[in-house]
Target: Oxidoreductase
Amino acid sequence: MDKLIVITGASSGIGKELAIQFSEKGYKLLLLARREELLIELNLKNTLCKKVDVTDYNSFKQAVVEAEKHFKTKVDLLINNAGIMPLDKIYNLDINTQHAMVDININGVLNGMNIVINDMKDRNTGTIINISSVAGRWTGENRTVYNGTKFAVHAISEQARRELAPFNVRLLTIAPAIVDTNLLINTKNEEVLKGYIENKKKINNGLTSKQVAKIIIYAYELPQDISLKEIVLSATKQAI
Ligand code: NDP
Model:
């Protein structure tokens, strides 16, 4: 497979599973995360692993340029997947945590899009997949800032898609409900954590990363002239 795919946040959860499944299908991969050792441990073929914080535009761009040179092909798919979700009431979240959420969940996505967008536009092909959330559609308790970041990802993706459509570039928003990953690692409030885990248990822990990755790959592998615009998905037992 001659196509180069960039996945941010590939060291865990959905991003990691995307890396494994795309690699099994023979795609060329650039995997990014801050914990580079976890990317290397995956030991995937045709894969470059780079320690990149998505909020750092220059290192993000440098990694993409390097991968394009290495694989002698341009990025065909960028998956902006990296994200954090420190849950709590807004009055309990310190301002640095709030800013980190905005920086990673929104600016990280803008950085990725900016790095590949003009090239895709000029080549009249390419796909960008932004991992938002059902939290980008409906607000919910303990998610004030997280909701804000994911609403932003939805809005940015929707209008960017309209602006890129004439250039044959696809933009797909993925909006999962609960997926069984390490996303709660940044939630420090024990009570909030307990409530989330109890709720998750009621729906058999929600979707798996494997299931989500499979759906994303299905959407990407549709012919370039078919654009799935948004996929909202959850475990059947989860109402929202
Ligand atoms: P995980 O915590 O398992 O994975 C998050 C990934 O993001 C990690 O690989 C982490 O890597 C990476 N990451 C975080 N911050 C940065 C950063 N600054 N720079 C680069 N990479 C970063 O969670 P999920 O797999 O669940 O999350 C993936 C996406 O899915 C997120 O955008 C999340 O909001 C979204 N989502 C998840 C849902 C769920 O229920 N799990 C539901 C809906 C949406 P590292 O720490 O090594 O940098």
User: Anything to note?
Assistant: Residues 4-232 form a domain with the Rossmann fold fold (CATH 3.40.50.720).
